[in-house]
Amino acid sequence: MSQRDVKNRISSIQNIGKITRAMEMVSAARLRRAEERIARLRPYADAIRRMTRQAAEAAGAELGSLPILKQHERSDRVAIMLVTSDRGLAGAFNSQIIRAGLRAAAEHEAEGRTVTFFASGRRGVSSLVFRGREVAGSYVGFTDRPVYGDARTIADALMAAYVDDVVDRVEVFYNGYVSALTQEVRRETLLPLQEATILGDEDGGEAPEDDGEAHGTQRALVEYEPEPVEILRRLVPDYVEISIFRGLLESTASEHGARMTAMRSASDNASEIIEDLTLEMNRARQAEITQEIMEVVAGAESLT
Questions:
Q1: Are 45 and 246 in contact (CB under 8 A)?
Q2: Domain containing 86 — which CATH number?
């Protein structure tokens, strides 16, 4: 490779490095805003989930008297909602959600269940279509900055599929935000409410609510007006919407964190490649100079 070729490669890699550094800075700024939105939402989301869980426990056997609360006799139709992004260049951010969703679908299908896919983000939709999976609901164009209306649109479709007896179970897969360097795949069951993640011990922040006698004393003092089932009629749509919205926000923050990390790694790799090419160019220049000196010496000797 000539010196000109090496210089051209160095120049192109430097341009790529500038782009990756700019993308890293943009992702870092967007990540800070996404973290602020999650911090504001989490207390409200935890309160809605806690209220819904307490009302569901108080309703007891009456839980199935409403269509949205009724647990289907069948349990062989599952809706899987994948929360991905519209853009790539974020490492394994999208692929790990798609793999987790497809793995869960394979498990359900191995047990004789049918799976219906819903997906947000162009990456998830295109990957499912590429794999020959039919997508019952696709939602794109907002993953950089989702709003509550986007979550409501998705929640309405999922609740309609459940109430209309199209599916018997709704599961959501998204990247939970831990830190800029760490995102974890989370799998939550939204419906039926009797099997929802909300009724388990998902949120560590809610543990004090479940402390033995103190919890029993608190529960004994609660009086519901109107009845718990009527409260759930109003709470469950909010619970589904806020759960979807929380997943969208967590996924957005995770996306920016993953992209920031990926672009930083790309910038570091570009710097290393430039160092290697610069060393290669210097060696080539040194070889050319040595060759020229040898030619001059040989010419001088031939004249003597």
A1: yes
A2: 3.40.1380.10
